């Protein structure tokens, strides 16, 4: 039996696994992708320095990935975790995962869930059309296949849009336009957070340099954009929106949308970990203490899957949580971990300083939290916002009743892509707060698995 199972090989998972292994723990690292890195450092071991347009921050992930080469650490990539049982069983938490068409279950004294973040859904009329995709998905293609977006418009809000725009400029295919939903009043309110943000002034200056690059490249920028709508036109798209009261019509081959990121919580919810509503980031996140400990025996969380603070904070949190787990394994006082974590705590504090400014300046636009009736919310079952509102008016007052009434969240993605949109739409329609509704319940298996795999489940060690 392993001392620790780490789920997710992004910044938090990699730093936690390497730290725990160096501390003497026997560690198993599981990740769906064929290589370590998560979304931020995807394919870093294969790309190394061959994709210069992705920038120096991307190259930082190589050191973390190479640190996984440790005799105490076993890495199993291409592994999809579909169930976690908490530590109330006598042999500790058990993790069931699928790899190469075979499922097995393994136990450990502790399990760290570091599944990272996913993009917030950006539902508007036409967002399901071919050629409309999340901006983060386009960046994944850049990292995994060196496919550079061409004739693309970046639409939405958040620093990721600036980063992708700069990467496209460096690759020689600048975006046709940058259509941003943040308003001048949002930016004005965010200025009160700037003094704290300057604790991490390097990131602030980095953001300003991205904006200068975009301006120098002559990319058109529209702000205070509303009323997104996409329609097919020939081999491309027509994208209409209003900006400062004026309607605009643009043509493009690709429309890359983004409204920030939210914790990926299907696995933590299916494990029975309580979740709370983040009133600033408008999303659910697992409840945990400063070390990443949850109220479920043996279950821990770290990184953006526990709350959005960015890659640097995730790396630091991975170290902090790993050292807390090492103390728990040896029945040592948690104060010892805090002493060891002094550098990581300082790094996390510095990285956290920028987040309040970003949350205020780039908050999601209301029209995506409660879109117009014709907008599809659940892509799997093709359920519209209007159908959700009708079901709510007919008595579907919560997520469970909404599933029964509409099947929203019951498709192959099991709500990963729609439950947040359904929650915010239902809350706005009923005049209630999301905490009154509660998070959608995620059930095991939380990822698709065949009956054949279940029947041949290997209980392992």
Automatic annotation (TrEMBL):
Domain SoxA A3: 381-454
Record carries keyword Manganese: no
Region (Disordered): 429-449
GO molecular function annotations of the record: oxidoreductase activity
InterPro entries in UniProt: BFD-like_2Fe2S-bd_dom_sf, FAD/NAD-bd_sf, FAD/NAD-binding_dom, Metab_Enz_Cyan_OpOx_G3PDH, Opine_Oxase_asu/HCN_bsu, SoxA_A3
Domain called FAD/NAD(P)-binding: residue spans: 3-318
Oxidoreductase recorded as keyword: yes
SUPFAM superfamilies per record: FAD/NAD(P)-binding domain
Keyword terms of this UniProt record: Oxidoreductase
Coiled coil feature spans: none
PANTHER family in UniProt: ANAEROBIC GLYCEROL-3-PHOSPHATE DEHYDROGENASE SUBUNIT B
Protein name: NADPH-dependent 2,4-dienoyl-CoA reductase, sulfur reductase
Originating organism: Shimia gijangensis
